[in-house]
Amino acid sequence: MTDIIKSIIDWNPWIESWTIPKELLWYKRDIDIVNYLNFKEIKILQWARRTGKSTLLYIVINEIYKKNKNILYLNFDDEILKKYDLQIIIEKFKEQKEVEYLFLDEIQNCKNWTSYIKKSYDTKIFKQIWITWSNSSLIQKEYSSLLTWRNITINIHTLNFGEFLRFKWFKNENTNFLSSEKLTKIKKLFKEYLTFWGFPEVTLRKFNKKELLLNYFDDFIYKDIVWRYNINSTKIKNLALYLLSNNSKLFSYRKLAKTLDLNFESLSNYLNYFYEIYLFFELKKFDYSFKKQLIATKKIYSIDNWFINLWFSFSENIWRILENLVFTELQRRKKEVFYFKQKKECDFVVRKGNKIVEVIQITYSLYDKETKIREIDWLMEAMNNFWLNKWLILTYEEEDNITMEISQKEFKIKILPIWKWLLI
Description:
Blueprint: H1 2-11, H2 14-17, E1 42-46, H3 53-65, E2 71-75, H4 86-94, E3 101-105, H5 114-122, E4 128-133, H6 137-147, E5 151-155, H7 161-167, H8 180-196, H9 200-204, H10 209-229, H11 233-245, E6 250-251, H12 253-259, H13 264-276, E7 280-283, H14 290-295, E8 298-302, H15 305-311, H16 318-332, E9 336-341, E10 345-352, E11 355-362, H17 369-383, E12 390-395, E13 400-406, E14 409-417, H18 418-422
Parallel strand pairs: 1-4, 1-5, 2-3, 3-4, 11-12, 12-14
Antiparallel strand pairs: 6-8, 7-8, 9-10, 10-11, 13-14
């Protein structure tokens, strides 16, 4: 059992040094994670691997450590720790030291943890319990019935553009009052953001970004899916590449199964594995009928643009990359999003309650007159269905305001560069 203690010390360097290494803390995110210490419930940080969940735990640990040293952090990516039941690990450590604050990282790899955590919370063994995981299936399969009403769930996305700028030491300012020099700089950083996007460690790294991202992709495929579910690695990877090459396009399960020579059940399972680890996301067509929403063709989006750029040309796929970026930002902002299509397609409609409150169209540029007419024409079909006063077209760098009149009703179309919209 000494291997448990050795691993714990490796993951808790403050036990020996009595200080939190600064390199574990990184840069400030938009989320005020320390504020959650005011809540007694179990804090659950979730989203894909490598989005910065562990760093946020260290930030909380650093805050607690100023007043209380009885902290235990366990990372279950550790090959030794994942062999043991959670209760065994903690009891072994408590023979050496008291524990009042418990932090459990990548809990999906831990054995027999749910009942112990429930009991610990109900009997108030710990002052605080924090958990991270990178697999949403745990919500349904492993903890929902045990931890209901006992937790607060916090989504930790990849960096938004404002956070990305801070990681690059660019101070966020009023975007309406930028000097030519700063405007040039922010556009250059926006292109970098589009290319490599927002995994924190990749953003901070100056060299070998591609190699690191390739490792991330392999971890998604092999660690999170192939090894966990014992499935064919070639088929699951081919499906991932196909989805990346068809990012933001319409697809149906049956046609996709036929194209890739997969049976329908296998395809459904593979897609669900992707959704569980947040590698891909499915967008439904808007319809007031829930049944029609379910049977309509879907659209697919990726967690990160770089995975699209990895195998496919950036310049040839720029409109897909922009659309993917807007989708993930809407998701980050907790919007309920759909695409809309009758004769023509509108990229995104946002629903709040029973009403559509926002309609967004994405295009690289409106400089070409035919493109401008087409994009506005697509919006007009949505206008005839959702009588909103304001409409939004997002472009790579153009900005304008257009007023139109349809059936004696005035419509205002705002055109914004995506980088500016991201900072609103």
